[in-house]
Amino acid sequence: MFIFILLGCVRIWDSCVKKRGETLEDAVRREVEEESGVIVDRVEYHSSQPWPFPASLMLGCIAHATTETVKIDETELENARWFNRPEVVQMLTRQHPQGLFVPPEQAVAHQIIKTWVRRTANL
């Protein structure tokens, strides 16, 4: 079983836009594949976060990958790669040897990452 989390750093803050007539799940699948080259199937809604400009709502989802190869779209992402659970715990506690860290606790991304850490505790 492949138990890793794909994390990336965005280059453009207004990326990841749902298209008219597209379901949330289809938007997640499309955006993940466009930006990282990774194919996902099952998508779970996690939570939302208000985004003040331009009066938007950020939706956070957990998606389950069916492929492992990462090929980023450099116009949208600075980088992206798979991380194992110990590395993610180091990032959450700001103890990663390379100084990597996750977004602040009030960010939906932080909450999704913490959920993943909890879910993978016994795997």
Write a compact overview of the structure shown.
This protein is an alpha+beta fold. 27% of the residues lie in helices and 28% in strands.
- Give the CATH topology: Nucleoside Triphosphate Pyrophosphohydrolase
Unreliable spans: none
- Top-tier CATH class: Alpha Beta
Rg (C-alpha, Å): 14 Å
Identify the overall geometry: globular
What integer is the average pLDDT? 92
Protein described:
Belongs to the Nudix hydrolase family. NudC subfamily. It comes from Dreissena polymorpha. One of its GO terms (cellular component) is peroxisome. With 123 residues, the protein is α+β, with helices and mostly antiparallel strands. It has one domain: Nucleoside Triphosphate Pyrophosphohydrolase (Alpha-Beta Complex), CATH 3.90.79. It contains three helices and four strands. Strands 1-4 form a two-stranded antiparallel sheet. Strands 2-3 form a two-stranded antiparallel ribbon. It is globular. The termini are close together.
